[in-house]
Amino acid sequence: MSDKTIDNELKVYRAKRDITQEELAKEIGVTRQTINAIERNRYNPSLEIAFELAEYFDCSVEDIFTYE
């Protein structure tokens, strides 16, 4: 197994829009706990969630998530 991780800038993107975890969760159809877990790198989102987030923030998946 590799030691690579997926980091993200979700909290930064959310702050730029000045929205809460709850508001973002409702927009993309997940729970606030899911958004919190993604931001804290405790959960890697499915591709569907990653694309929903990118669409919501009008950016690419790679802008939010980086594989290191």
From TrEMBL:
Protein name (database record): Xre family transcriptional regulator
PANTHER family, sorted: DNA-BIDING PHAGE PROTEIN, TRACRIPTIONAL REGULATORY PROTEIN-RELATED-RELATED
Pfam families: HTH_3 (PF01381)
Domain HTH cro/C1-type: 10-64
SMART domains: HTH_XRE (SM00530)
Gene Ontology MF: a single term: DNA binding
Organism of derivation: Halopiger aswanensis
Keywords, in A-Z order: DNA-binding
InterPro entries in the cross-refs: Cro/C1-type_HTH (IPR001387), Lambda_DNA-bd_dom_sf (IPR010982)
